[in-house]
Structure formats: structure tokens, C-alpha cells
Amino acid sequence: MNARLATLLVLITLLVVLPKALAQQPAGQAAESPVPVVPNVAVNSAQKAPNFTTIPTTEENPGITTGGYELKESFEFGGRITNYSGNTGTWDTYVNLGSGARLLEYSLNMHNSTHSGFLFDDLTFNNFGYGGDPNNVSRLYLQKGKLYTFNGSFRRDVNIFDYNLLANPLNPSNSNPNVPILDSPHEFLMTRRMSDASLRLFPAGKIQLRGQWSRVTNQGTTFSSFHQGTEALLQQPTSYISDNYSGGISVRLIPRTSLNYDQFYTFFKGDTTAQLAPAASAAGFGVPTFALANGSPVSLGFPFNTPAGYPCASPVLANGLANPTCNGYTSYARFGRARNSYLTEQFSLQSNYWRRVDFSGRVIYSNSESSMPNYGSLFSGLETRAATVIQNIVAPPGGGSSANRLSLTTDFAATVRVTDRFHIVDQFRYTNFRIPGNWLYVKNSFFGASLGAAPNIYSSAACPTATSAGCPQHTSSSGADVITDSLSDFLRQSYTLNTFELEYEFTRRVGGYIGYRFGQRNITDINTDNQVSIFYPTLPNRGACAGQPLLSGICTVATVLEAENTNVQINGHSALLGFSARPKDQLRLNGDIELFSADNAFTRISPRHLQLYRVKANYRPKDSINLGAAVYIRENRNTAADIGNLQHNRTYSLSGAYFPPDSKWGVDASYSYNNIFSQTNICYVSTPTPPGALSCGSPFMSGISVYNETLNFGSASFSLKPTRRISANVGYTISSSNGSTLILNPNAPTGPLTFNYQTPLAGLAIELEKHVILKTGWNYYDYNESSATGPTLPRNFRGNVVTLSLRYIM
Q: Which of 62-76, 372-386, 772-786 has the lowest average pLDDT?
């Protein structure tokens, strides 16, 4: 259904229903006090339909009484009419709303005011989004006096991500063949389901019991890539399931003191596999599938830049068949079942037993295990550099990967009220974790000269001498025929953090604090990677076996690829300062400053120096007017000569709302400015070498990577209630970004750094009869990138979503 038809449907609805609503308005109604207009939910780009807080709700409805319960119920049924044009993948990524019937909302409230219900005194049941929307939610709450409270919920989210610049090789147009990649090779189509239930027994008693269960599943189809000579498109049936259990007890035998003990257990299952994308799926991304002379299908990957030799200089022969000496895949499969378990114990307490002392504490101990015993990666095709035609990486019996994580965390905080105006606050945290892990795998490689070639399998009978025709056909760049790799790693980190503050209230309206924070982080990383490699003839003295002795024409060598023992200590100091002021009852001000300095950094973008400034103001000169402003500034520095990292994040925002209590209209608006900047020295490959560049190790060049983005966000909404039966609102939101970054690929556009995203909306609600409301809403989405699209499909889209519904309140 197109936009014109949707608009026509709305107009017909208004022409038919509006006169009826106005005719039903009692003659003397205009003299009544108008119904107050209250603020709507802030308009934003994620809002799917207008919200009316001026229409009747179940809270305003007296409901009915049955069986001792006061019953309130509401239904809202309707549908959406969607029409859009432009990039389907980007539309689904940002909006993902389609046409069809919907259960927009259903709620049920039951309350027994005498607390004499048999199973419960209060019940609340809410639902929305069923019938085709990407987000569906159901919530249930039960309560029975001082006996129990129960919360349960279910949520389903359909998540689609297809922003076509992600992992796009940006194939140039002068490649032969020219292969533009239309969608993101790392697209995912996932459905997440979240279920949880929690029960608390004796919530007001001196001894409380609680238990909780939740499950999160992520299942669907995703796409990824794998590099072996070229980059192959992989289709990944994806499944992640996490089950979480917890139980605890709270004891309140001492006045104003609670002692709590909890246990948590999480079990995670990852059963994601990957296969070479079928020809039909690959074609949807613009990735062609070719055939060899024997008719076998072959994928040459999705990077096509033949002037640079990807996947080779001439991937397609004159007869249209694939070049058999080009990088390519005839098949690929990857599998591995990941299993993780987390067992955690927690003891905590909170107390204000003494009049002038409040304190709280917590100790958490966790023991986690992770394993993947049956990993496998199976490649068949051709990697021309090494002449590899088959390569299998598998976990041998007793191999695979495994890791443990042992963690201890303690927190303690205390506030001492020396006087009514002077407080001493101290917060202490210590955390320590250790992660030992290992990985054992075997790699078998087989070699040949072309795609589809049957490799020679080594045997002493077929390869009696190093130059026999039956020997594996290696080149000087071929890797080992068999590799057994054993990797062990140990990571340990401890972190101590203490924050000390002095708070003083100078007057009833002005207060402030000064403080000092000290943090010490100790990081130890120990890892070793041992390989035993076997090199068969021909050319057994290649690679790591150069110059090594042979045994029966075979070279076996043990090497240590990596042996590292790193210890890093980082000491950080922060000066803290803050204030709060209320010069008059209508005006509130507060602000914080942190100045941080460290003697070391673990990563190149971790700051050695940091400045943080936050200021907020709220002014309410009248009950109908609310004004706000905020400033957030963060400056990071790590000016070591080889790093040169500078970062800042600066945000300034304003907001205002005017909703007179006895008015028929109201308005609110907000604006924010955000600038993110980062600069870091990097090394990169450049051909030719740029003038004046400094070398940082062949073949890399030194340069400065700069990222700079400015985002302006504005929103406004206007609410109107001309009569008791009619409510209306309109709104507009815009996000506008203008940024730049270092782009090494000349084909790359700035993409999401320069865009405008506009989302106007409008809505109308009409009370046809008492407790019967007709609602209609319109949302418009317009996403437009200001830069060139690059060698991809344009990512722009625009679309209309019209929502029509009937709401009944009883």
C-alpha cells in the first residue's frame, strides 16, 4: 500500500468519525474546565507511534468489582500500513516495521483492597507488539500481602543488521569482472527471546527468601567471512542460549540492618556453525559463483580488485569459467560447540544501625569454566601463495580449548555524619581474577597447483625420493604438512580502588565535596605457543625447517612461536571536586570535576591524563514551565612519543517544556550538541610511500589516524486537546552528523559520519463513546547520507508508517 492510499485512509477516518465525536460533545461542555495537558514521552528516532498521555487510562477508570477484586482492563487492537523506498537493508536495520494487524496493547489490573484474595491480592498483566512487530513484550506481576511477590516477563526482539559498508571490500569499478557487494557480508538476521521469573517470599519479614530464573536465546542466520587466499562469504546458522539461576536469603534481625547471601549459576551454550554460502545466498549479496572446467562450482570470494591481484589478476577465463590457478573455495565448513558455566556466590550487608554511620559491603567469588572440545575448520580450494588445496584444522582427542576464570571482588562503603553538615565518605573496591587457558589442535595441509586438483598424499611408497612424482607438490612458500600446536595462556589482574570524600553543607542551599581517588592495577600476562611441524618432500627444508636435518627425507622441527611474560603496574590518582546549589526553590545546580593522572597505560588508547567536567541545571519558575541544561566534557591524553593519543567527548544540551495545568495545549523541545574527537599514531601499509612519512618497520609507514564527528540532535512536540473527547500531538526529531576520519582506501565513503535522520510524527485520539477511543498515528522516517555512496548501493531510505487502532477501557 503506497503513501497516498495510507493518507487517504486517514482522511476518510477523520471525515467519518470527527463529526460524530464533535456532535456528541454536550452543549455545555465548552464551559467546563479543560482537561490538563501533560508532557508526552520525549520524541525520538526509536518511537514507533505517538503516545497520548491525555487520553483516558485504566488508572482513571473506576473499573468494576467482581469476586472481591477491583478489575480494570484495556485492549488496543489495530494495524500498521507501511510504505517505504530506498535501501531495504538500512530500513530494516533502523526501523523494521511492516504492514499488518497488531495487538498494540492489552493490560489487566486486579486489586483486592481487603487483602483477602485466595492466591493473590494484586495482579498486573501487560502486553504489546504482538501480530508482527519486531518487539513483543508480556509482563506479569503477582502479590499476596506479606507472603510473596512474583514477577515474570517474556520479550521477543527481531534484530536485523545490514549496513552495507560493514566488512564491504569496496571493489573498484575498474576490476574485471566488476563485482559490487550490495549488502554487508557480516549481515545478521537474529531473533532474541528473553524469559525470566522471580519469586520473593516474605518480602516484609525479618527473613526473606528469593529465587530467579532467566533464559536468553539468540537464534537465526548470520553471515561472516574467512580468509584463505581470498575472503569467502560464510553462512552461519547461529544459536546462543544462556540459562541463569539464582537464589538468596536476607536476614533482618538487627534494626536497620540487612544481611544477604546469594548464589548465581549461568550455563551458556554456543552451537554456531559456518559453511560456504550457497550460490543462491551469495548471489543476494552480489557475490558470483563460477564453475571449473569439470563443472564443479567454485567461489572466488567477494573481494574483486583485479588491478591489485585480488583474487588474482585474471579470475575469469575467456570462456567464462573460473581460472583454476586463482585463489578460491570449493568448500568450507567450521564447527565447534562452546560450553561455559559460571558459579558465583555473593554476601552483602547494608546497615544504618548507628545514627551517624551508614555502611554497606559485598564479597563476590566466582568460578567459571569454558570449553570447546570439538573444534574444526575444513577448507578445500586453492591458496595460491602456499599452493594449499586442502587444509583441515581439528581438535585431537583430549584437545580443543578450555579456560577457567577465578574471580574475587570486595566492596565496602561507609558514611560518617560527623555533624549534620559535615560528612566523611569512603568507598573501597578490590578485585582479582585469574584466567588460565590452553588450546591444542592439529593442522593437516595438502598441496596442489590448481583448483580442483587432487593432491598427492605422502607415503614412503609413493615418495621414495624427494623429487618423486608421487610426492606432495610444495612450493618454497608452502607451510608444514602437519602441525601440532599447543598454546597456553595465563592472565591475571588485580585492581584496588579507594575513593575518599569530605562533604560539607555550607548552608541549607549550598553544599559541596572534595575528594581523592587512588587506583592500582596489576596485570600479568604469560603465554607460550609451541609447535611441532612435519615437512614432507618435495622441498622438506622449507620454512622453519631451513637448514635442519632430515630423517628418511622428512624434517620434523619443534619451535616456540611465542613466549611472553608481561607484568604491568598502573597507578592512578584523581582529584575530585563537586558542588550542589539551590539559590532559590525553582533553581537547582550541581557539578562534578575529576582530574586523573596515571604513570602507565595498558593499551594505546588508555589515558595517562584525564579531565572530566559535568554540570547540570534545572529551572522551574512555574509549575507549567520546566527548563534544563547540561554540560559534559571529557578530555583524554596519552602523549607518549610513539602513541600521541588525544581524545575528547563534549556534550552540551538544553531542554524545555511548557504545559500549563489548565491549558488545552503544551509544548516541549530539546537540543544537544556532541563532538567526539580522537587522534592516535598508527602504522599502515602504503604504496607508494607518502612524502615525508617516517618508517615504523618495513613495510609499514607511520601516520596519524584522526576521527572527528559532530552530532546535532533536536526534538520538539506539541500537544493539543481542543475538546474533552479529542487529543492530538505532532512532533519532529532530527539527528544530523558531520564528521571525518582518516580513510586509507580511496573508494571508501564517509558513510555514517555524514548523515541526516529526520523522524516527524503526528497523532490523533478521539473518544467515540465512553471508554472507546479511536487512535491514528503517522510516523515518517527519512535517512540520508550527505557523502558519496562509494561502490555500494545507496543506504538512504524514506518511509511512512500509519497506525490505526481502537482502544477499549473497562
A: 62-76
CA distances from 278 to 119, 233, 272, 671, 792 (A): 55, 9, 17, 48, 22
Half-sphere exposure of 298 (CA within 13 A, CB side): 29
Tell me how far apart the alpha carbons of residues 50 and 718 are, in angstroms, rounded to a whole number.
Answer: 11
With beta carbons less than 8 A apart as the criterion, state whether 398 and 388 touch.
no
- Collapsing DSSP to helix, strand or coil, 9 comes out as helix
* CA-closest candidate to residue 498, choices 515, 474, 513, 486: 515
CB 290 within 8 A of CB 259: no
Residues sharing a CB contact under 8 Å with residue 671, sequence separation 6 or more, in sequence order: 653, 654, 655, 712, 713, 714, 715
Rounded to whole angstroms, the Cα distance separating 228 from 327 reads 8
Does residue 418 contact residue 496 with C-beta atoms inside 8 Å?
no
Residue whose C-alpha cell reads 522516517 in the numeric block: 781
Tell how strand 64-66 and strand 772-785 pair up: unpaired
Mean pLDDT in residue range 335-340: 95
Q: What is the DSSP string of 512-526?
A: EEEEEEEEEEEEEEE
- Output the pTM of the full model: 0.87
pLDDT in tens, 578-619: 999 999 999 999 999 999 999 999 888 899 999 999 999 999
**Residue 453 pLDDT > 80, yes or no?**
yes
**Grid cell at residue 529:** 605457543
In this model, does residue 285 exceed pLDDT 70?
yes
Q: SS3 of 304, please?
A: coil
Are 769 and 749 a contacting pair, CB within 8 Å?
A: no
Q: What span, in angstroms and rounded, lies between the C-alpha atoms of 561 and 610?
A: 38
Beta strands (DSSP E) in 471-553 are 482-505, 510-535
Alpha helices in 175-320 (DSSP H): 279-284
Q: Exposed, middle or buried by CB within 10 Å (0-12, 13-18, 19+), for 185?
A: buried
Asked whether 596 and 611 are in contact (CB, 8 A), the reply is: yes
Do the strands 69-86 and 64-66 form a parallel or antiparallel pair, or are they unpaired?
A: antiparallel
pLDDT band at 788; cut points 50, 70, 90: confident
What are the tens digits of pLDDT across the range 51-66?
544 455 544 566 788 8
Distance between CA atoms of residues 729 and 150, nearest Å: 37
Cβ–Cβ under 8 Å, residues 263 and 344 = yes
Q: State how far the alpha carbon of 380 is from the alpha carbons of 126, 312, 314, 391, 394, in Å.
A: 53, 18, 21, 7, 14
Report the alpha-carbon distance of residue 51 to residue 247 in Å, rounded: 38
Count other C-beta atoms under 10 Å from residue 227's C-beta: 11
Distance CA 323, CA 317 (A): 6
At residue 223, what are phi and psi to the nearest 5 degrees? -125, 150
Helix (H) or strand (E) holding 4: helix 3-23
Q: How far apart are CA 294 and CA 292, in angstroms?
A: 5
pLDDT-above-90 percentage for the chain: 82
Name residue 505's beta-bridge partners: 511
Q: Can you spell out the DSSP letters for 696-746?
A: SSTTEEEEEEEEEEEEEEEEEEEEEEEETTEEEEEEEEEEEEEEEE---ST
- Residue 266 pLDDT level (bands cut at 50, 70, 90): very high
Three-state SS letters, 73-116: EEEEEEEEEEEEEECHHHHHHHCCCCCEEEEEEEEEEEECCCCC
Going from the C-alpha of 790 to that of each of 245, 428, 794, the distances in angstroms are 49, 52, 8
As a whole number of angstroms, the distance between CA 713 and CA 653 comes to 9
Q: pLDDT category, 27, cuts 50, 70, 90?
A: very low
The whole-number pLDDT of residue 308 equals 92
